[in-house]
Design goal:
With about 70 residues, the chain is mostly helical. It has one domain: Orthogonal Bundle (Arc Repressor Mutant, subunit A). The chain is built from 4 helices and 2 strands. Strands 1-2 form a two-stranded antiparallel sheet. A hairpin with a 4-residue loop joins strand 1 and strand 2.
């Protein structure tokens, strides 16, 4: 199914870019141009990204919890 009609980007392509580390619509746009023309697909891209695990997001969350523990120790 096409997510971005302007550039012919499919849902599978968006998911692949997300697996490769693109965690935001802007990062998806950098990878394949989806969302950079009319913008009507940005919400769909956000929904796709919101469903999957993002390696970078997980690292940030782990880092945030580690920082919180350091603050508590101080």
């Amino acid at each position: 199914m096409f997510v971005c009609s302007c550039f012919g980007v499919t849902e599978q392509q968006v998911k692949k870019h997300a697996e490769d580390g693109a965690c935001t619509p802007r990062q998806i746009a950098s990878a394949c141009k989806a969302g950079t023309d009319c913008g009507s697909c940005v919400r769909r891209i956000q929904a796709i990204l919101g469903r999957g695990a993002c390696p970078r997001r997980e690292l940030v969350e782990q880092g945030a919890s580690a920082l919180a523990e350091l603050d508590e120790a101080a």
